[in-house]
Design brief:
One of its GO terms (molecular function) is ATP binding. It catalyses: L-glutamyl-tRNA(Gln) + L-glutamine + ATP + H2O = L-glutaminyl-tRNA(Gln) + L-glutamate + ADP + phosphate + H(+); L-aspartyl-tRNA(Asn) + L-glutamine + ATP + H2O = L-asparaginyl-tRNA(Asn) + L-glutamate + ADP + phosphate + 2 H(+). It comes from Mycobacterium yunnanensis. Helices cover 37% and strands 4% of the residues. It is mainly alpha-helical. It has a domain of 38 residues: Histone, subunit A (Orthogonal Bundle), CATH 1.10.20.
Length: 99
C-alpha cells in the first residue's frame, strides 16, 4: 500500500514553493514511497541485545591554544594601505552609495 500520494507531494511542493509538473509529482511520489518503505523495513529490524556503537574518533574540537603574541600596531598595519581615514582602511564606495 502506498504511504505517500501525488497529492501529498503536491502539498509538500507548495510548502517548499516548488513548481512541479504532473510527471514530476507522480515520479516523486513513487520515489518517496520507496524511501519510506525502506525506512520502515529498517525500523522493523529487531535490535534487542545489540550494543550501541560509539564514535571511534576520540579527537573532538581540536583547536590551538589562544596565545597572545606580538602583532602589528595600527600604524604599521595601515602603512601599506593606498588610503586610510581616521585610522581605518579607506575603500571605494559600492552599490551606488553617495560620498
Amino acid at each position: 500500500m502506498s504511504q505517500i500520494s501525488r497529492d501529498d507531494v503536491a502539498h509538500l511542493a507548495r510548502l517548499a514553493r516548488l513548481t512541479l509538473t504532473d510527471g514530476e509529482l507522480q515520479s516523486f511520489a513513487g520515489q518517496l514511497d520507496a524511501i519510506l518503505e525502506h525506512v520502515s523495513r529498517i525500523q522493523a529490524v529487531d535490535v534487542t541485545g545489540v550494543e550501541a556503537t560509539d564514535n571511534p574518533l576520540t579527537d573532538l574540537n581540536v583547536t590551538r591554544p589562544d596565545d597572545v603574541v606580538p602583532s602589528l600596531t595600527q600604524e604599521e598595519a595601515l602603512s601599506g594601505a593606498p588610503k586610510a581615514v581616521d585610522g581605518r582602511f579607506a575603500v571605494p564606495r559600492i552599490l551606488g552609495e553617495e560620498e
